[in-house]
Structures are given as structure tokens and as C-alpha cells.
Amino acid sequence: METNAYNGFSIKIVRDFYGLNQSQFAKLLGVSQPVISKLEKGDKNLEENQIEKFKEYFEPSFFKRNVENVNQKLFYRKLSSITKTKLALFESRLNLLHNTISEALEIIDLDADGLPKINTDDFIKEKDNEFKIDFEYLATEIRLKFGIGRGPINNIVDLLESKGIIIHFFDYDFISSDNNKFDGVSFYVKGIPVILVNDKIPNSRKVFTIAHELGHLLLHFEDLISIDRDIEAEANNFAASFLAPEKDIKSSLRQLTLEKLKSLKLEWNMSISSLVYRAYSLGTISQQTLRFWMMKLAPIRKQEPLEFEIAKPTLLNKMFKLLESETENGFYKQLGFTEKLREELFGKENVPLRTKLKIVLN
């Protein structure tokens, strides 16, 4: 939505998008740092020549949009060790994505069941004199609600998108495939679950990341989370149980060899490393054997053999096509994003091709 006045938070979004602190931003605009503070508070307006500096990514109309500051707690939970600059770069893009999806959902409805509401108390069981979440039980219930039978999940992307979960593979220059802090994030927009996954990571890691973020969406958004709970470990435990239920895979995780693990990787759509950890968690290998396998796999962990293809998300693309139709090609225009920014945020496949004029020669 566009207003008559400049929106201070939209200016901060642009500054963070470029990875600049207030002093650096002030130097770029040829003003003092206190002026930047006033701009971001909405107490002062940008000049036209200043807006021109950002035309590669932002149309002038963007600076008058009602861009909301989305609570960062919705986005991620394990980035405390990331530099402030890289965090700002990432957070600005997440805010832009969140706001865009929010505006899209004002126009269209996703006709899907969504995720079931989970009360973790229903899945607490006593084990070793402690009361813990029974992830096998929880994952089985979710599989049943999703209509999945036993065995491997052949296409987790299509499965979750059929339930109305928006999945998007992002590709940002400042995030490498090695930085597992940025493997994936998840949040809700107007009650719709969204999972973002780093497109640079191997497909086997993508599958586990999607299941991991599904665990967060199910377990960690409704209630206040006790500081005693390790939510990353909980998401990992859910993902492992969801992708490879104990009753289906345990017998296969005995007497492991590399050839056997390669075969299981293709059957279960999980990385070799994940399968070894699954074997350890199910008690089919000892901690000493786990250490052996981690040492043995160290040379190939970043680039495992036998990577497989996975389906590309399509739900966001379908939403944008419908929006363009419903708004007579006006949805992208109202965003205030240039085509270059749309490609960075959503991927080329989610940006409609421009109609080319054809010269007809007699």
C-alpha cells in the first residue's frame, strides 16, 4: 500500500539491503549521520536525487509504501553468531519477502488444509525417568494427517505445498553453501506457513532442512518456549522421525557400509551423514562407531556422492501468476521493486517475462 509520505522503515530496509550502517549510508547520500536517523524515523523526506541512487533495485514508489517491520523472532533462532552486517542483509530480504506475501494474501486465498495444531503435552512420554516429547509418535501423527503411508517421502516439496505451505529456494550472493546458519528459516504470514531454503545447499540437505523447518512451524510458534528446551535439537529430532520413521528404517541401519549408505540415501532421500546420525539416535551404532563414520565421511560431507534431483517449489509462482491476472498486471508495479530486485527475492521463475515487441518486415 502506498501513502503520500515517505515511510521511515522503508528507508532502513534499503540501507540494510545494501549492507550499510548509518554512517556509511550518510556518506553515500552526502548528509550527516543525524539526518539518516531523522529519515528512518520519518521526520524527514528523501530528495529525488537521493532516491535515484537506489534505482537499480527500488522504484521511487517503494519509499512511500507502508512497509511493516516484521518481528525478527519469526524468522530465525540460531543466528546470534552471525555478523551484524550479514544479519542486516538477510533480515532486509526476509522483511521484503514477508511483506510481499502478506500483500498477496490480501488479494488471494490459499485453499488448503494448512498445518494441524499441535499440543506438545499430548506427545510427552516418560523415558529414562524424564518426560520428553516422543518425536516418533508426533511424526507418525503428522504423517497420518498428511495422508502419508509407511516408507520414504518421495517428494516433500509437493507434499507440503499441497497443504498450503509456501516453500521458496533463495539464492543470495552473500550466503554460501557452507554457512549452515542460513540453511533455512520459517515463519507464518497471516496464518500461512512459509519455509525458505538456501538454494546453494545440496538437495539431500534441502530435504532435511525442509523437514527441520516443518518441525519449527509445528512446535515453536504457538506457545512461549521454555529456555530449557533445545528447539534446534527438537526440530532435528522431528525431521529425522518424519523422514525416516523408526519402524520403517531401523532394521536397515545395522552393519553399515558406505555402499549400503549410498543405497539408503537414494531410497530415503536423505544425506549419508543424516542416515549415520539416524542410526546412532536409534541405537543401531555406538558413539564410537558414529565417530568412526564422521571421520570417514569428513572428506565428502560437503559434496556427497549420488546427489539426487528434487522438485522445485511452484506455489509461489502460481500465486504471482494469479495476482498478475487479478490485478491486471498491477501487483508487481505496486511493490516498487525493479525487475532485478524481484529476480533476487523470488527467483527468475517467479518473475513474468516481458512481452517483446516484434518488428514485421515486408
Q: Would you write up a description of this structure?
A:
The chain is mainly alpha-helical and 362 residues long. It has a domain at 120-300: Arc Repressor Mutant, subunit A. The chain is built from 16 helices and 5 strands. It has helices at residues 8-17, 22-29, 33-41, 48-51, 84-107, 135-145, 156-162, 203-219, 231-243, 246-249, 258-268, 272-281, 287-297, 315-326, 331-335, 339-346, and strands at residues 124-127, 130-133, 166-170, 184-189, 192-198. The protein has a 3-stranded mixed beta sheet, with helices on both faces. A hairpin with a 2-residue loop joins strand 1 (124-127) and strand 2 (130-133). The longest helix is centred in the first third of the chain and has 24 residues, at 84-107. The radius of gyration is 23 Å and the shape is elongated. The model has no long low-confidence stretch (mean pLDDT 88).
